[in-house]
Design a protein that fits this description.
With 424 residues, this protein is mainly beta. The protein is built from two helices and 29 strands. The protein folds into three domains: 180 residues, no CATH class; 50 residues; 103 residues, Immunoglobulin-like, CATH 2.60.40. Helices cover 4% and strands 55% of the residues. The strands form five sheets. It has a nine-stranded mixed sheet, with no helix packed on it. Strands 1, 2, 3, 4, 10, 14, 15 and 16 form an eight-stranded mixed sheet that branches. The radius of gyration is 33 Å and the shape is elongated.
């Protein structure tokens, strides 16, 4: 995984203007790249708290590096540094005095009357030591370096895409909302945001807990135009989606951006799927599908809600998962079933001839509406099957699939009969 990230870094950095970037994965994993001033052989480089330290890399490559975690001002630790020295102790009644700190845990003080354990009060420090309040990587190079490109993986940042598809008579409008969930305490800035779509195998482990993100806060970036969608690229079987704009993801909250909107022609289809080894005795509702061809923009994977406008309102008619779709691809969005168009698949003849099985089927589609409708039917068959006595409407689209477009008149039914032969 580490080497895959290094190759991705090389790919991104080869693009002009991409010295700084943020790649976000859908599973609370991110990959960040920044350019840092070094001006010498060593430097302390600030990193985000979700860093997976074994993925830290630089160009040029470092000679050695170690992680310096963020520290906090803790009284017990401060007292430890003062053991054997004189400190001021403030008691609950407001009195104070100078004592030698004999032991920090438990607190033992030495005064004119000897060593004692204070029953109350708190130490008073004239000043506090300097501590590391932000996590850092201390890096050393084998020669003087002016600037270095730094990259690493981190946990605590993820993305999801949500779509609303509004159906109109002549076309549909697809609007996309991007959710960036930042579970880290820091605000994360980037000038070059890239969404990585797809699930990856990982072996890197996080050495410390990442806090869970609190309840999401809704924010809509009105100033960002919906210019997304034209630059998706394939990378080793995955898809990278650059999102234009400058982004600041506030710590411990989720941010929502409108990142996509375009119109697309569509067709509402009714589909019926069956397989050669089933025999249905009753009609069942056909599936409804929104079919769109030749997408004009690339769309990353997400969930889509489909709406249709009525006379005075808009109604949700279905929801579905949407896989990654490049420009020019075909989309089929399942939105539910309809009782107005139903189908039945029956085995009407079965026999064995030598080493072959012979089957004949009847597909019936019934239309309960007052308008003509089309049913798109798909039947799975054995790869080596041969058609016989088949209806002319039967089309073999794949070795193991038969397709039929059945047009059914209003308040009527249509019957398709076909047979297959296949080796037993």
């Amino acid at each position: 995984m580490k080497y895959a990230m290094i190759s991705l870094l090389a790919l991104i950095c080869a693009v002009p203007g991409f010295s700084n970037f943020l790649v976000i994965y859908p599973n609370q994993l991110a990959y960040i790249g920044v350019e840092e001033e070094i001006n010498g052989r060593s430097a302390e480089i600030n990193v985000l708290s979700g860093i997976l330290t074994d993925t830290f890399a630089t160009i040029p490559a470092y000679e050695s590096a170690f992680y310096m975690g963020a520290e906090m001002y803790v009284v017990d630790r401060l007292l430890k540094d003062w053991e054997g020295h004189e400190i001021t102790w403030l008691f609950a009644d407001g009195t104070k005095g100078a004592y030698t700190l004999v032991c920090a845990e438990p607190v033992l003080l030495k005064g004119p009357d000897g060593i004692f354990k204070p029953l109350n009060g708190t130490p008073v420090f004239a000043s506090l030591p300097r501590i590391n309040t932000e996590p850092k990587m201390s890096v050393r190079f084998d020669e003087n370096v002016a600037r270095a490109k730094v990259s690493y993986q981190l946990q605590g940042l993820g993305w999801e895409a949500f779509y609303a598809l509004h159906l109109e008579e002549d076309a549909a409008t697809l609007r996309g909302t991007l959710k960036i969930a930042n579970a880290l305490r820091e605000t994360i800035h980037t000038d070059n945001l890239i969404l990585f779509s797809g699930q990856i195998n990982r072996v890197s482990q996080n050495d410390y807990a990442v806090p869970a993100a609190p309840r999401a806060q809704f924010y809509l970036a009105e100033e960002k135009e919906a210019s997304y969608g034209g630059g998706a690229s394939d990378f080793s079987g995955y898809v990278l989606y650059p999102v234009p704009g400058v982004f600041d993801f506030s710590g411990e909250q989720s941010t929502y951006y409108r990142f996509l909107e375009f119109r697309q022609p569509y067709e509402k289809r009714y589909t019926f799927s069956s397989t050669y080894y089933t025999n249905e005795s009753a009609f069942r509702a056909l599936n409804q599908t929104i079919h769109m061809e030749e997408l004009t923009k690339a769309v990353p994977a997400g969930t889509v809600s489909v709406y249709q406008k009525r006379a005075f309102d808009t109604v949700l008619i279905g929801e579905s998962a949407l896989s990654d779709k490049p420009i020019g691809d075909t989309v089929d969005i399942a939105i539910g079933r309809t009782v107005e168009l139903q189908g039945k698949f029956e085995l009407i003849e079965s026999r064995e001839e030598g080493k072959e099985s012979v089957r004949r089927y009847r597909l019936t589609v019934k239309n309960y509406t007052e308008k003509p409708l089309k049913a798109y039917t798909y039947t799975s068959v054995p790869d080596d099957s041969v058609l016989w006595l088949s209806d002319k409407r039967i089309e073999r689209t794949k070795a193991n699939q038969l397709f039929t477009l059945v047009e059914v008149a209003p308040k009527a039914e249509e019957v398709v009969i076909f047979g297959i032969r296949y080796a037993r």
